[in-house]
Design a protein that fits this description.
The protein is of the alpha/beta class. The chain has one domain: TIM Barrel (Alpha-Beta Barrel), CATH 3.20.20.
């Protein structure tokens, strides 16, 4: 059932490019002193990508080639905007405003050449963005939180932080925190999200020169009523979990079992990841052995190995050692893939459309 292939294909899907998580090491320390628990790898390591992050990542990718002379390609699941903290504060927290990621790169130290490097990656076919929505934020709920002057959201605001967790929220509708951009509770959330998806896909085309055919909802959370906006915007593939929890208006959730290539009522096809490469998930392991075992299982099932990853594996703004560990692990992973399966082919995620459906 689903898409099958006799070829050994490897796809890397890497999330969160373009989003601002932690602005700097100093901001991280300030947030910690304000009560933010730095208990996950994203708050520990993740930050807007730097020029050096991309340069070093590209160096690793271009050191490897498959049987056809093709380099590994990162399908970069990308947010195209972040909150405009200055304009939000100028409105006395009444109105939400965002700025597109080209301005974020320009305004952030050591990131001024990132957009040009991304274009270089596209031209070399080693780094190809696809849509992760506009911002990695349920912005309507965040504004509600910011209007409460004593809220943790307001406390973290001065340090440019918006990934507020559910236990730090003043309102009870969020069970996943505010990073799940397309989470819903009220019917009005759906209309806001449709508008956001349209603007996300339009901005994406303005920045990168092509329409995104893949859409990955942040945190893989969305409501099916949003699929029409994706289809109208040119999306063909929806990247979500195998066991998908779908939020419901008024609270609660229902479950959906997915498989690769499943066509849903809206006409979208489902993309499901089946391997994980997250070298900073554990202090004691780089995750290589488990990733290789998952790749082997995918090949046995005659499916492409679709490897889930996050930008946080390769970022060095907060801790350069994190970037070093991630790139060393990636280099070793690629070498072991090519040694174990010499007939492997590296493809981008959008190329799954060339596979047959059985």
């Amino acid at each position: 059932m689903g898409l099958k292939t006799q070829s050994k294909l490897v796809i890397f899907l890497s999330d969160d490019w373009g989003t601002c998580r932690i602005r700097s090491k100093q901001d991280q320390q300030d947030l910690n002193s304000k009560g933010l628990k730095i208990s996950n790898r994203f708050d520990q390591y993740d930050a807007l990508e730097t020029n050096k992050d991309l340069e070093l990542l590209f160096d690793v990718l271009t050191q490897h080639k498959d049987k056809n002379g093709i380099h590994p390609v990162i399908t970069a699941v990308t947010n195209v905007a972040n909150p405009d903290f200055d304009r939000i504060q100028e409105s006395d927290f009444e109105y939400y405003n965002y700025k597109t990621v080209d301005h974020c790169y320009r305004d952030t130290p050591d990131s001024d050449r990132v957009l040009g490097l991304v274009q270089q990656g596209i031209d070399q076919r080693i780094f190809i963005p696809q849509s992760h929505g506009r911002e990695h934020l349920q912005w309507g709920w965040w504004i509600n939180e910011l209007r409460v002057s004593s809220s943790p959201a307001r406390k973290y605001f001065d340090n440019g932080y918006f990934f507020v967790r559910s236990d730090d929220c003043e309102f009870s509708y969020s069970q996943r925190g505010l990073g799940a951009a397309f989470d819903v509770y009220h019917a009005s959330d759906i209309e806001n999200h449709k508008y956001t998806i349209k603007s996300a896909l339009d901005i994406f085309e303005d920045l990168y020169g092509y329409r995104s055919t893949i859409f990955t909802p942040p945190a893989m959370v969305y409501h099916p009523a949003l699929e029409s906006a994706m289809v109208e915007g040119g999306v063909e593939w929806l990247d979500v979990g195998r066991f998908l929890k779908i939020p419901q208006v008024g609270g609660g959730k229902r479950f959906q079992l997915n498989y690769l290539g499943r066509k849903i009522r809206s006409g979208l096809k489902i993309l499901v990841r089946n391997a994980v490469f997250e070298p900073n998930m554990s202090l004691h392991s780089d995750g290589l052995d488990s990733c290789l075992a998952q790749i082997e299982q995918a090949f046995k099932a005659k499916q492409p190995a679709i490897i889930s990853n996050h930008r946080a594996a390769f970022t060095g703004r907060i801790d350069p050692k994190n970037r070093g560990k991630g790139l060393q692990a990636l280099d070793e992973l690629l070498g072991r893939i090519l040694k174990t399966w010499p007939d492997v082919s590296f493809i981008s995620a959008q190329e799954v459309s060339t596979l047959s459906h059985k």
